[in-house]
Amino acid sequence: MEISRRDFMHIAAIFGLGAVSVGCSKSGVRTPAQISLKDIYDFKATGNFTLLHMCDIHAHLKPLYWREPSTLISAPNLVGTPGFLCGEAFAKHYGLEPSSLDAYFDTHIDFETLAKKFGKMGGVAHMKTYLDHVRKERGAENVLFLDSGDTWQGTGVALKTRGEAIVKAQNYLGVDVMVGHWEFTYGKERVKELIEMLDAKFISQNIVGNDPFADEYEELIFEPYTIEQRGGAKIGIIGQSFPFTSTANPREFTEGWSFGIRPETLQKYVDELRGEHKVDCVVVLSHDGFSVDQELARMVHGIDFILSGHTHDPSPKPIVIDGTVIVIAGSHGKYVGRLDIDAKDGKVHGYEYKLVPIASNLIPADPEGVKLVEELYAPYADEMNEVLGKTKNTLYKRDTFFSTFDQLINDAIMDEMKCDISFTPGYRWGTTVLAGEDITMDNVYEMCAVTYPDVYTFELKGENIAKLLEDIADNVFNANPLYQQGGDMSRLGGVTYSIAVGNKAGERISSLKVGGEAIVLDKIYIVSSWGGNLQNAGQNLQKDKIRPVYDVVRDYIKDKKVVDVSNEGNVVLLDYDCGCPTKGSQKNNL
Amino acid sequence: MSSRKSLIKIKPKSYKDGEIVKVSFMVMHPMETGMRKDKKTKEVIPAKYINSVKFDYNGKVITTMNVWESLSTNPVFTTYMKVNGEGKLSVTFSDSTGEVHEKSIKIKPKG
Amino acid sequence: MQRRDFFKQLGAVAAVAAISPAISFADEAKKLSGPNDLSYKAAVDAITGGKGAEESSKVNLKVPEIAENGAVVPVTVEVESPMTDSDYVKSIHILATKNANTRCIDVHLTPSNGKAMFATRIKLGGTQDVATVVALSDGTFLTATQNVKVTIGGCG
């Protein structure tokens, strides 16, 4: 059988040939039409056990369209590194065939055309079929299914059931261990209730009590690790929840808990697992983000594998840093990572990895899963299925500065709130609605389903708006991944600006204009924002205007009937080509 | 002597004579800088912050501290000490308004 | 008295409770200053008697890269020292280099501490370096610094 280029990459990774192999093999060329279930399942089984991995499914129980970013800008030192690759740069780095299933899943290139060819992605019923295939092939007793978190939040059904629908889906899928981030936005008490319902173990070495008067002060809130036996191997799994939960999301949800990266204690647990428990393999199940985990691998020694999450990167090939193998499995249920490991006598002897696309037109749905999803949606079906209007152009979420769906949200907010500026958060989760298709209420929730949905309208001085933008830009573009919070740049309605991402903090933004006029530093502007805590920085909050963002967006789309958002950004990039810069690339305009 | 809520915690909870243990003192105190305005009245909130702390163990001074207004509200002071027989550990502080507070616990090594 | 904002920069918040936002611009226009204002350099000079302090790997300063809350930033200082009568750490000083009064705390230790360690939580008025100066019983001074980012956050 021919080997596909992607499979070649996996084999090459094992022999350390990764970089050399890119674009070298012509033998694996396969036309899209030829792709079959067999190709998706194809895997050279290795070793004594398998780790299956998902991350950031953001409560997507049903298949969806999800377009990867067409612009992914980073600090200059990180340009061209995995985690900051997209589009052509991504395709080139990983040797993807144009118009292939992999190209459709991993890049934005020809997205609309390929979406018609390959259909929707993910969905728990399709995912389950693949998981069961592997469990059958390997023997269920030799397989662990690990979840890097951002699982309970991101859709209407998740919000309405306060996470419960998703826990049921996790139990159905057979998740063994998980960590969290957006999970915590249901609040501490609800998190504990959901963990009670969850069959999987919830672990985290980086969450400790920080209320000096509580019993749990400086004590772990969750078990830091678990030891599982699979295929005769002892596997130590350490949990790493999102280190910046209390700054990225409202602090009141996790009051009394402190997060952070905590590399010192991580090292301690690695040593404990190896020294005291004599494990054969040390795995970190992480929601740190792909670039932070690459840094972590440099700081902490003795980790065999990091199963990463948070930054939503599809990474067809593992990254190896100081002997630690790092993988990440995209987002929204589009992929399952399969990692076969050969570990015994306290050592990993080999591994094989594949990022498996959950192509819902190729992998049949498990009937039980279809039934479960129907049941979970039934109480909300009328609301979710309501068609609000149509979109002329494709609505998507990801990109560093701008996206069409975020622009639609900003348009809706500006229309209702009569504000000068609208801030929509640069979350990395959401959905994609193809050009010409209906927008349903379910789609609106896919973009806005947060437990703190209110749109706030308040006053902010010009100079503070400028400072805020600089502050947000530094969270995204800091040269040191440990000072980045993950997430894309906030999306601004009513504003245009230029940015030099390589400049130092506080000096990146220029030509800042509001409503086409240069910003006046001591002028008061009316600002609307949601999904963050900007309102705390403002004055004279207009309380009568507060309303959940999903209602604002719903009413706007219903009113417009057909929305027409152009894909023209509002940001000029001064120090790179726009799109997906490659190493050494230089200036052009957006 | 003020009646603020305060705590002394020793880690580990059970310790032997001669052992070096972690000692934390935490107190409910506003640590007002005197440079902050009340959001509603726009009046400056007067300064009130702890300015000195002392750890005494059986009458012997283990640690003293000069403190300024940059310490957080409800401050925590953590250090180590060598257990040296049964006795009393006292933490005393005074603040910028002259308030004085003392908290003590018994030190009882096992074996 | 002329007053300058204690928390210049991004204008944070001397918070009463931990739920206060990391950033507030409320008092920014009125620049307040306090009676204890002292620059970083002046503070280091005062501690070391003008000798200055040397960076050392014996001093382990632990602060978060990104503060979870600018009003409650945990700081831990550990120093390699036998803590004997003849060789011990006399004092640990914690400094917030851009607060108006950079001094946070001076901790005077004795050999009875057994270990040279001190931990507390400080308020930071914006992104800045946090520093520690350590005085040894032989009259030398060591130092370590690390940048802490104070941010309004808000992505995910």
What does this structure look like?
The complex is a heterotrimer of chains A (590), B (111) and C (156). By secondary structure, chain A is α/β, with parallel strands linked by helices. Chain A contains 19 helices and 26 strands. In chain A, the strands form 6 sheets. A 6-stranded mixed sheet of chain A has the order 4-3-2-1-13-14. In chain A, strands 6-7-9-10-12-11 form a 6-stranded mixed sheet, covered by helices on one side. A 5-stranded mixed sheet of chain A has the order 19-16-23-18-24. In chain A, strand 21 and strand 22 (517-518) form a beta hairpin. The longest helix of chain A is centred in the last third of the chain and has 16 residues, at 462-477. Chain A starts with a helix and ends in a 17-residue tail after the last strand. Chain B is an all-beta fold and 111 residues long. Chain B has a single domain, classed as Immunoglobulins (Immunoglobulin-like), CATH 2.60.40. In chain B, the strands form 3 sheets. Chain B has a 4-stranded antiparallel sheet with strand order 6-5-8-9, with no helix packed on it. Chain B has a 3-stranded antiparallel sheet with strand order 1-2-7, with no helix packed on it. Chain B has a two-stranded antiparallel sheet with strand order 3-4. Chain C has 156 residues and is mainly β. Chain C is built from 1 helix and 8 strands, in the order H-E-E-E-E-E-E-E-E. Chain C has a 5-stranded mixed sheet, covered by helices on one side. Chain C is globular and about 45 Å long. Chain C starts with 39 loop residues before the first helix and ends in an 8-residue tail after the last strand. Chains in contact: A-B, A-C, B-C. Chains A and C meet through helix 11 and helix 18 of A and loops of C. Strand 7 of chain B pairs antiparallel with strand 6 (116-122) of chain C.
